[in-house]
From TrEMBL:
Catalysis performed (reactions): tRNA(Pro) + L-proline + ATP = L-prolyl-tRNA(Pro) + AMP + diphosphate
GO cellular component: cytosol
One BP term from GO: prolyl-tRNA aminoacylation
Major place of residence: cytoplasm
Protein name: Proline--tRNA ligase
Domain of life from the UniProt record: Bacteria
Subcellular location as annotated: Cytoplasm
CDD domains, per the entry: ProRS_anticodon_short, ProRS_core_prok
Residue span(s) of domain Aminoacyl-transfer RNA synthetases class-II family profile: 38-317
Species in which this protein is naturally found: Candidatus Woykebacteria bacterium RBG_19FT_COMBO_43_10
Uppermost EC category: ligase
Keywords: Aminoacyl-tRNA synthetase, ATP-binding, Cytoplasm, Ligase, Nucleotide-binding, Protein biosynthesis
Record text on subunit structure and interactions: Homodimer.
Amino acid sequence: MRYSKLFGKTLRAAPREAEAISHKLLARAGFIDQLAAGIYTFLPLGWKVHSRIEDIIREEMDSIGGQEFSMPVLHPKALWQETGRWETIDPPLFVTRDRHDKEYALGPTHEEVITDLARRYVKSYKDLPFSAYQIQDKFRNELRATGGLLRTREFFMKDLYSFHTDAADFKRFFKDAIGSYTKIFASCGLKILVSQASSGSIGGDVTYEFQVPSEVGEDLVFFCKKCGYAINREISQEKKISNKCPECGGILNQTQAIEAGQVFSLGTKYSKGMGATFVDRDGKEKPIIMGCYGIGVGRLMATIVEIFHDSQGIVWPENVAPYRIHLVAIGNSPVVAKKADEIYNQLIKKGEEVLYDDREESPGVKLADADLIGIPERWLISEKTLKEEAIEVKKRGEESTRLVSISNL
């Protein structure tokens, strides 16, 4: 992509309302644009990162047997009344009416919709287990949307739902899902705490949050360095956990953290409430055992920026970066422009992902923008490097540079 043609350019100053580092940098670097409070457009650079995170998630969901599909955003009121959540879910639902005066919710989550599907498609134990996921637009009627992408009113979420005949089968899948989540966050470069947590309005008897330690995090997590035990402050108070680890007796440390994902053991909460049953091997009708598993994609993107940045801008991990190479032509020499075009075209032919800064801007502006955008490698071409028949290569986040012969590229 030629930067001169890219929609969305860098800003010299962050939006006045931006408080979180991720909000400031993603807006300044041209990744997102705010339409209203908690409502954002992903510009081309931002959508590339979003899509890379989606690809990482898809690979892991597919690896544990998840089948991808897409459910509607509009949910009939009657479905939510079956579970009693039409009035009780927190935050409250966004509600709209059609021309026939029927009420619908803009879906914040899809337990009701997927359970309705299960009760119509699952008949016997032969139809189980199965798991299905989607990466889809969600709506949360937040009282106060803050932190840029960390807390929004509209966002994309990966929600996975699993269906089982018995507790043993569910536990096997639940363990696999936790392992898969750990791999997702590791692929994004993040270290996590798998923390016991409250199930909130989703419900269920066991739930874990995947917490990323960060000063901007809204949650407080107690954790043990010795054995890895972790627990959210809210549930630690319910369980009356002291400063000693209940698993190994070690000292519990505490940290602020960003919740990057959550998994729930739902049991039969929704299947009993909505009549989602199956006939077992003995001909007996039983409620389906369920689990659900969520990751907010935009929040994960913001969390990565909160962890990977410096005073100049974003430092993207290679797996999620919008491009792998940031090619920068310095100076107004026709010779430099010609050679930069040649190298760019060669890289594209080889299938490399390149952002080529071909703008008529000063060297200072181009180098500052490269640091702000945060692509893993900067390749610089100038009259000085061409005298050496080379380009200057620098990894983002490192000070050192090296000259690489153009013939060896």
